[in-house]
Amino acid sequence: MRPLILGIISAFFFAFTFVLNASMEVSGGSWIWSASLRYIFMIPFLLLIVIARGNLRPLLDEMKKNTGNWMIWSFVGFGLFYAPLCFAAAYSPGWLIAGTWQITIVSGIILTPLFYETIQTNHGPPIHIRGKIPYKGLMMSLIVLAGIFLMQFEHAEKLTMSSFLFGFIPVLVASFAYPLGNRKMMEVCEGRLDAYQRVLGMTLASLPLWGVLSLYGLFTVGPPSTGQSLQSLLVAICSGVIATVLFFKATDLVRGNMQKLAAVEATQSMEVLFALIGEIIVLSIALPTALSWFGIFTVIIGIILHSYVSNQKQDTKEQTTISV
């Protein structure tokens, strides 16, 4: 239950991303700065936390040993995740991006065969087997996605094809990149680093991308405004630090069970509800219709069912530890 609670809390703070990115886009801010400033602003906060916990040296040693993997999977998990999300904000409203982002629930399950489970046996060495798609969890995730569709259906009818494509395809890429990068880094770290270290390490390893993107922004759109900088700072604290650390902590707690990992990832569907409330308060969007409220109810039911399925005892399996 604790990993699911942490996942839901992280979804609340992740929702700041969609609301504030929409706000920055409305005020004329460029997606380039929305993306790069978040990770640049994250560094001092994460450094202070990791240094205060006395864990900076172990992190640097780990990064030195696996520099290539850190660079590649941080680019995937952070770069190909957040830059497309910010790009999509220039073409679609926050509620649609938050809704489309929930595809990551299914994406995470589809990626399962790319990783291996380590079965701890009573006799002999551990056995490594390729992960299998948890079909019960997949069915529960589809219920969640059905709820998302109901929430967005009436709004989506008003979108142009270009807004849909530029708002959908980048988010689709991000939906696969985030769980892939997160799981690959857990595989590289093998439990040797905590969530704070892992987030800081991935942020540092992705800095070359944000540096190049910032230079591109200076020459194409000019420096960011004070308002966009302040909102990006808020995104960095709420979503980049608080939400990411909570989510990584939740996934670390269930590294030993692929179904529970999928359930934790499914909690992120609550971002739609939180983003909707945020846009109503901050951007004064219209209240949801009856169909949208039915969609919200469906999402909540889907999460409850997902949690139930993921916690069912598997009589044919022993307790496992998954290397993800």
From TrEMBL:
Superkingdom of the source species:
Bacteria
* Keyword check for Transmembrane helix: yes
What keywords would UniProt list here? Membrane, Transmembrane, Transmembrane helix
- The UniProt transmembrane annotation reads 31-51, 72-91, 97-116, 137-153, 159-178, 199-218, 230-248, 269-287, 293-309
UniProt protein name: Putative multidrug resistance efflux transporter
Species whose genome carries this gene: Bacillus oleivorans
Q: What is the lineage of its organism?
A: Bacteria, Bacillati, Bacillota, Bacilli, Bacillales
